[in-house]
Amino acid sequence: MASSMMKLIGAGGATFEVRDTAGVASILLDDASVGDTFLTGVVAGTATASKAVVLGASKEIATITSATITTLTATTGNVTTVNATNVAIGAAGTLALDNATASATGNDTTQTATVTKMAGTVTTGALTTAANATTEVVLTLTGVAAGDLVFVTLAGGTNTTSVVVKSAIATTNTITVVLRNDVLTTTALNGTVAFHYMWVK
Question: pTM for this structure?
Fold first, then answer.
């Protein structure tokens, strides 16, 4: 089979021959021979329409308008959306947050625990909180600020008396969850109460 050939002039005037022969799928040129030479209009670190993408010195790339990715794994650093209207997760998708468990200690008035994850499950000590009374569970979590969002749902425990989450409030490095005995008269709580929490900036 006939083959065609073209010559490329690299950095320093070096000449490279590229032959279109059967069985040759690609040609690789090393940096030492070619230097930092790109197609006209290509800037390292910036995406250009209809051009090759060249990463910047810190392996970064900017100005990509859209990308379809099957799996995106970020081992370190932040994933930030700027001016995003929506972040959508498909019907079969899940949002997996780093989480941990913690045990709170204290009395019927106040229980405390230190947590280190943005989500987790906290279990109180055994409570005997009176009917229609409350117990504050104070979580210490570095990074929390006033106005942050906190979501709390009950997750069981040994208590069999009706209990509800009255409030969950974020302040500096603290989340205060207030549990209320939901029985109006007579019956006290009679065991531990577990709840899930999720903190969102």
Answer: 0.67
The residues, ordered by sequence, that sit 6+ positions from 181 with a Cβ below 8 Å of its Cβ are 129, 130, 131, 132, 133, 134, 161, 162, 163, 187, 188, 189
pLDDT tens digit sequence for 119-178: 999 999 999 999 999 999 999 999 999 999 999 999 999 999 999 999 999 999 999 999
Instruction: List where CATH 2.60.40 sits in the chain.
Output: 99-200
DSSP letters, 12-55, are: GG-EEEEEE-TT-------HHHH-S---TT-BTTB--TTS----
Alpha-carbon distance 172 to 186, whole Å? 36
Instruction: State the CATH architecture for 99-200.
Output: Sandwich (2.60)
